[in-house]
Amino acid sequence: NESGDKAQAEKMFKKAAELNYQISSCYHYIYLITKEKGDEAKAFQIISDAYKKYPKEEQLLYDVINYYLEKKQYTEAENYLNTAISEHPDNLVLYSVKASIYVNNYTALKEKDQADCEKKLSLNKEAYRARNNAAENARVQGELKAQTAVVEATKADFLANQAKAADCYNKMLAKDAKNYDASVMHGILSYD
Questions:
Q1: For the segment 26-61, what is each residue's pLDDT rounded down to a tens digit?
Q2: Pairwise CA distance, residues 32 & 151, whole Å
Q3: CA 176 → CA 29, 91, 156, 159, distances in Å?
Q4: CA dist 112 → 12, 16, 155 (Å)
Q5: Per residue in 61-78, pLDDT tens?
Q6: CB 30 within 8 A of CB 17
Q7: Is the pTM for the entire model greater than 0.85?
Q8: Best CA proximity match to 75, nearest among 104, 101, 94, 109
Q9: Which residues neighbour 143 within 8 Å (Cβ) at sequence distance 6 or greater?
């Protein structure tokens, strides 16, 4: 709320937290207020310290996950999502969020693969043009070999991310066979 007294609210949330009253909510709002002030590092430190001190508080865990997602630090987000899933295995939203990380990775890697393949095609054309010049052909063949390895590695990475996303959707469907989001997203992923 723009008209609210955030400084007063922050004081009250800190006081309530000191009294161990609704720890999750208090630290969640202290985090948000600090973040709104523009001090992202301090905001993260607050929520991270709170989660370490109160690891059973679900909201704190979700705030840490969301922080990493906002920063596109997907490996860290995935680590905390794994913790959340182990503690709340029936929460399908967690599987969906985890799948979205893999879909984002998959999409970026697929685009990279297309660019890598275009470069490989260009090198193939260059190799054909250089076929009668031994020195030039050797140079191009070396670049082509290296680019082929890049293409294969990128493709393996994007397929691995696709498989991980599919696994998340399969787990969601195993828990709720009629889950619309999992069905549609799995279908889109399979089609792609």
A1: 999 999 999 999 999 999 999 999 999 999 898 999
A2: 42
A3: 33, 11, 30, 25
A4: 49, 49, 9
A5: 999 999 999 999 999 999
A6: yes
A7: no
A8: 101
A9: 123
